[in-house]
Amino acid sequence: FWDIRTEKQADDILLPAKITSIDLSKDGYYLICSIRDDTIKLLDLRKNQIIGSFSHENFKLSCDWARASFNTCGSKVACGSADGLVYIWNVMGELEATLKGHTYGSGFFHSSAVNAVSWCPNSNALATVGKGKRCIIYTES
């Protein structure tokens, strides 16, 4: 990390593989890093250490630019996978859901890898985009 006050490197946190994305929590205390070893690491920036890891046996980052995201309140982490699913964990590292497509039999789903996810700042809606050129927005309704 870089300290802008001193213009010097403040700390290093070594991660096990290439980082594909980072997302900072709204309070600025936590950072998630999606890693090419098919994990997402949770870092506490106040302690300068890894405090959590998110993974699943079927979860695979699809590319070098796969993007994970905190929800607005920082209680959940979502990331797309090469299997076409979106994985959602709570910050304790427990898998809460996998999303394939819209409900009610619409037939809309990612048929290929999901590259990026983004939470709506005003609700729990989640936008996703995949290699199949499809954007899907998941809502609670």
Describe the structure.
- The protein is mainly β.
- It has a single domain, classed as Methylamine Dehydrogenase, Chain H, CATH 2.130.10.10.
- It has strands at residues 2-3, 8-9, 19-24, 30-35, 39-44, 49-54, 68-70, 76-80, 86-90, 95-99, 114-119, 126-130, 135-138.
- The strands form four sheets. It has a four-stranded antiparallel β-sheet with strand order 3-4-5-6, with no helix packed on it.
- The chain starts with a strand and ends with a strand.
- One of its GO terms (biological process) is autophagosome assembly.
- GO terms for molecular function: protein-membrane adaptor activity.
From the structure above, extract its key features.
single chain; 141 residues; mainly beta; Methylamine Dehydrogenase, Chain H; four-stranded antiparallel sheet; 13 strands; globular; protein-membrane adaptor activity; WD40_repeat_dom_sf; WD40_rpt
SSE layout and pairings?
Layout: E1 2-3, E2 8-9, E3 19-24, E4 30-35, E5 39-44, E6 49-54, E7 68-70, E8 76-80, E9 86-90, E10 95-99, E11 114-119, E12 126-130, E13 135-138
Antiparallel strand pairs: 1-2, 3-4, 4-5, 5-6, 7-8, 8-9, 9-10, 11-12, 12-13
Pfam family, one: WD40
GO molecular function: protein-membrane adaptor activity
Protein name: Autophagy-related protein 16-1
Order of helices and strands: EEEEEEEEEEEEE
Gyration radius over CA: 16 Å
Cα distance, first to last residue? 41 Å
Structural class: mainly beta
How is the CATH topology named?
Methylamine Dehydrogenase, Chain H
The quaternary structure here is single chain
Rounded average pLDDT: 86
Total beta strands: 13
InterPro entries: ATG16, WD40/YVTN_repeat-like_dom_sf, WD40_repeat_dom_sf, WD40_rpt
GO molecular function: protein-membrane adaptor activity
GO cellular component, one term: autophagosome membrane
Pfam families: WD40
